[in-house]
Amino acid sequence: MSALLEITNLSKSFGGIKAVNDVSMTVERGQICSVIGPNGAGKTTLFNMISGVLRPSAGKIIFDGQDTTNMKPWKYAAAGVGRTFQNLALFSQGTVIENILVGRHVHMKSNALDAAIFWGRARREEMAARQRAEEIVDFLEIEEIRDMPVGGLSYGLQKRVELGRALACDPKILLLDEIVAGMNHEESEDIARFVLDIREELGIPILMVEHDMKIVMDISDYIHVINFGSKIASGTPDEIKANPDVIKAYLGESEGAAK
Ligand SMILES: Nc1ncnc2c1ncn2[C@@H]1O[C@H](COP(=O)(O)OP(=O)(O)OP(=O)(O)O)[C@@H](O)[C@H]1O
Known about the structure:
Helices cover about 40% and strands about 20% of the residues. It has helices at about 45-50, 75-80, 95-105, 110-115, 120-140, 155-165, 185-200, 215-220, 235-240, 245-250, and strands at about 5-15, 15-25, 30-35, 60-65, 65, 80-85, 175, 205-210, 220-225, 230-235.
């Protein structure tokens, strides 16, 4: 079976800056895959192209057999690409359950007119959405805070809610952009456990950009390394840890960061 995500010769330029330069990589079904690299390497730009936030300057993205390279940005969630963002992207006044329901609306076909004419269908959709949101609340162990406004929650819990909202669109792949950045050790460990559970119990493959090397090495099946926009290595955690090009790239930034 072909890879779930296949990126071929992908590039993105901003004026004279080649933020991503001719990158090719795949994510297999069932995999936890990480993209790592020093600051400014082009990781977020790569993510933004895969999730439709940015249009590539060149190259091709095939997701689940479909060419998504130039797909309209609002179609990505329905196509099965779920993601979290580097900075929190939640409605702080809304409750936990309301924020998760927002992620679900991508699967709801009824609009206001439908709701008036086909009351039954709209109601069934709403009930199914609520049930799925409750399942996600259970899965992420956030029952106790389900009715609290997210603005008052700790950063770690807000990130968990953001994960819940991404899961609510029933993604075929989940993109996590530095999900543990700014978390304390315990919160990071919790999120790492949920990421593993998402793959094991929900069967959703993960592609993550992450600076926390412990998490990357602990939970990734496969790692791609980007430096100055170009891919310099791919391999298992053990292969990446021993790769001289990777060690050199990281030593340029901070002593031993890839170890
Ligand atoms: N919208 C933009 N306009 C101009 N330059 C940009 C833009 N977005 C990113 N860049 C540049 O592209 C390069 C790659 O940035 P990017 O944010 O993708 O790196 P990164 O690997 O995610 O970095 P970090 O780990 O610090 O988040 C950087 O030189 C950055 O300044």
